[in-house]
Design the sequence.
């Protein structure tokens, strides 16, 4: 960790007070982790059935054929029931109306090759329902309101439709950020069928806005390509599972800390948020009755900071058929599935092989990952499947031997090799974290990653922190090909703290340690890869359509460009995010 001074504490506290009056930053009642744990423990597990999120079609029909469509989806404050025995909770939620808004939001179902336009509307109140910290780089409107902007995570779309962190807007577009350009976003849906998700991306507020509920799933389908695979299909047997941990006050409201880990520097910010309860599709520890047949689950980890290491208590395997927005070339069977923040996996489970009438989906990932505390009796449980008694099902679905192929990795074709370095900085007096940077730079510093559209690059991502970081690039698709341990790590870190230059610090002499293999079920084109601490991870990045090898069907070099960042939301907000500017 890199020490920094905290000499501006008084000025920062004045800024907190001023911004709090303008935008609703109000300290909540003091509460201990023990109290939050007691609230969560009071909720009986497996009493609420897993919700099926409402579906919104991202296409129209014209003369019986799919045609482009235009949707209007708003963001609203409303009440949501997270559990039978918990009072209704104030949330921010997506929906086509206030009445239909849900947590998570409706699942948008699009078709490959059929464009969709979405007008995103902000109907949120003047004050936030959760505390936030104006001392991290944050969108702060002059006249109040909750800034939001929507990013389609995993989407391949023009820069003006990407949901840039500074393209935020408040209710009625009353105030707009410096890179705001249009109320209506264009999604070409030219990419491979797969699972994506949409969520808020406002500067400095993603952790608060997502915790409040601004997230939802987005599925791209291509029946002509996918039907021959024979995977489980239909709403009953092809389900999206959105995982998100939350802590609650006894009155049902969502807990978010009001005091920071280093309050002299950041009065409210903490490096990670971990909730005591695990919600799936907006219910705490739900259950799902299942038949003795194959089911397809599209698992999205929408937590702020928690990783999940998932397994089924009765030993059934997950047949992984896809990760993030891409299929695997062939299925991979695993009994444990590590899902990073913002990562998605597409799996099939065969409940006809279940030796038990029930199967719990459990979690064993330490938090923070990988060297934190083991999950307890609450965060170690996710949901339960109740398997019906043995019956004969005419289940014609299957797990095929082969799936879909894309362009080859072709590391040797890279036009450029870059070093991307992850730092965490700490206060000299307390030793507590103050902020995190990539390559020692801020979002507002000029772009240094300027790839040419249509090319391949190799990014050597060096993690000098203690955490595993889920690296997310907007627009691009990429995959890790290997991870090499760093020997003489402390010596290398000291050099990097002085010079911030991997070449001058002889990275080649340090990246010679143990090699960690990339799991088979992660060897496809992804939009999140795990970057292990103390390792240099080699990532091949494609700035092109991996389905065809061709360049993008739009001008990817336009303003305001894209970004890349750590997807632990508390890290991204402070300030592990950098610009990504494509050039011709």
Sequence:
């Amino acid at each position: 960790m890199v020490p920094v001074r905290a000499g501006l504490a008084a000025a920062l506290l004045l800024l907190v007070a001023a911004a709090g009056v303008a935008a609703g930053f109000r300290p909540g009642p003091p509460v201990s982790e023990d109290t939050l744990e007691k609230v969560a423990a009071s909720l009986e597990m497996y009493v609420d059935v897993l919700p099926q999120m409402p579906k919104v079609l991202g296409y129209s029909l014209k003369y019986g054929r799919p045609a482009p469509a235009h949707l209007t989806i708003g963001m609203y404050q409303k009440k949501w029931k997270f559990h039978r025995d918990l009072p209704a909770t104030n949330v921010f939620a997506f929906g086509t109306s206030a009445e239909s808004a849900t947590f998570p939001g409706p699942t948008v179902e699009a078709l490959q090759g059929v464009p969709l336009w979405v007008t995103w509307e902000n109907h949120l109140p003047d004050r936030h329902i959760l505390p936030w910290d104006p001392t991290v780089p944050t969108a702060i409107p002059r006249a109040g309101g909750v800034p939001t902007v929507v990013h389609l995570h995993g989407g391949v779309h023009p820069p003006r439709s990407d949901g840039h962190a500074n393209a935020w807007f408040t209710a009625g577009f009353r105030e707009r950020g410096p890179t705001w350009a249009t109320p209506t976003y264009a999604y070409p849906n030219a990419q491979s069928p797969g699972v994506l998700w949409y969520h808020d991306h406002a500067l400095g507020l993603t952790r608060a806005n997502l915790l409040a509920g601004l997230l939802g799933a987005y599925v791209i389908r291509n029946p002509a390509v996918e039907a021959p695979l024979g995977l489980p299909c239909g709403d009953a047997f092809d389900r999206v599972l959105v995982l998100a941990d939350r802590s609650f006050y006894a009155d049902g409201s969502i807990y978010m800390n009001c005091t920071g880990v280093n309050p002299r520097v950041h009065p409210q910010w903490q490096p990670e948020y971990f909730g005591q309860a695990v919600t799936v599709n907006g219910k705490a520890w739900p259950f799902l009755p299942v038949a003795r047949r194959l089911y397809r689950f599209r698992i999205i980890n929408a937590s702020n900071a928690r990783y999940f290491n998932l397994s089924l208590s009765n030993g059934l395997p997950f047949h992984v058929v896809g990760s993030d927005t891409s299929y695997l070339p062939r299925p991979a069977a695993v009994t444990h599935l590590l899902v990073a923040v913002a990562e998605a996996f597409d799996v099939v489970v065969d409940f006809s092989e279940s030796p038990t009438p029930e199967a719990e989906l459990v979690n064993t990932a330490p938090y923070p990952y990988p060297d934190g505390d083991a999950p307890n009796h609450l965060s170690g449980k996710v949901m339960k499947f109740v398997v019906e008694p043995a019956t004969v099902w005419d289940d014609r679905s299957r797990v095929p031997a082969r799936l879909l192929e894309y362009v080859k990795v072709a590391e040797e074709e890279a036009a450029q090799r870059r070093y991307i370095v992850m730092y965490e900085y700490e206060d000299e007096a307390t030793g507590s974290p103050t902020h995190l940077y990539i390559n020692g730079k801020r979002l507002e510093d000029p772009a240094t990653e300027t790839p040419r559209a249509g090319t391949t690059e190799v990014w050597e991502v060096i993690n000098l922190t203690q955490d595993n970081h889920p690296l997310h690039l907007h627009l691009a698709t990429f995959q890790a090909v290997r991870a090499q341990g760093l020997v003489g790590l402390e010596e290398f870190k000291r050099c990097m703290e002085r010079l911030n230059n991997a070449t001058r610090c002889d990275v080649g002499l340090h990246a010679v340690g143990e090699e960690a293999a990339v799991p088979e079920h992660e060897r496809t084109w992804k939009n999140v890869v795990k970057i292990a601490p103390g390792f240099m991870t080699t990532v091949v990045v494609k700035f092109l359509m991996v389905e065809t090898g061709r360049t993008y069907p739009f001008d990817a070099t336009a303003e305001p460009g894209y970004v890349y960042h750590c997807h632990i939301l508390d890290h991204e907000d402070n300030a592990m995010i950098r610009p990504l500017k494509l050039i011709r």
Q: What stands out?
A: The mean pLDDT is 95. Residues 238-387 form a domain with the Immunoglobulin-like fold (CATH 2.60.40.420).
